[in-house]
Amino acid sequence: MKKFRKLLLMTMFLGIFSLGFSKMVFEVNSSDESANLREKASSSSRILARLDNQEEGEIIKKEGKWYYVKYKTRNGKMIYGYIHDSQIAVGEIYVVNSKDGYANVRALNSSSSQILEKLSNGTKVIKYSEKGEWYSIKFNVNDGLGEDYGYIHKSQVRKMK
Q: In 11-46, which positions are buried (b, 16+ CB within 10 angstroms) versus exposed (e)?
């Protein structure tokens, strides 16, 4: 009974603890056109993989100026390692959640700017930065065959947990 109670309390604690966190992602954005994924949080550490600009992965945690990340290679292998914060853009996953059932993605952070795409409720986007009431995002186009960047009003999305 004590083991069950301890397990139940631990499960509840972990569940409550995880509620405030959203999934963080990264995209390589380096002036060198690539970034090194390293074994340890050090520029002298062994290189596990070289990631080209616009390659993505999931952030697990931050340690100083380094991120410990999960990266899926082109042939499906999962690699865990460290990448320096100067070589990536960090984003959070949001979901379109509009009372209209869709949200407009615009070329600039203005409601009078050109509409690039209409995204249906439930569509996932990656928020990279915020400008006033607008988020700079990356989103899928052509049924997921491509990606583009634009702006979406912050009232039209919610953070994914």
A: eeeeeeeeeeeeebbbbbebeeeebbbbeebeeeee
CA pair distance 90, 69, nearest whole angstrom: 11
Q: What is the pTM of this model?
A: 0.71
Phi-psi category of residue 18: left, alpha or beta, with phi > 0 → left and psi -120 to 50 → alpha: alpha
Position 102, amino acid: Y
All domains of the chain in start order, with CATH: 24-91 (2.30.30.40), 97-159 (2.30.30.40)
pLDDT in tens, 65-114: 999 999 999 899 999 999 999 999 999 999 999 999 999 999 999 999 99
Tokens of 130: 């915020």
Nearest by Cα to 40 from 71, 68, 78, 72: 68
CB-CB contact of 93 with 22 (8 Å):
yes
Q: What is the Cα–Cα distance from 66 to 38, expressed in whole angstroms?
A: 10
CB 150 within 8 A of CB 115: no
Residue corresponding to tokens 């700017």: 113
Tell me, what amino acid is at 106?
A: R
Single-letter amino acid code for the residue at 72: K
* CA–CA gap between residue 66 and residue 14 (Å, rounded): 25
Tell me: the pLDDT tens digits for 57-79?
A: 999 999 999 999 999 998 999 99
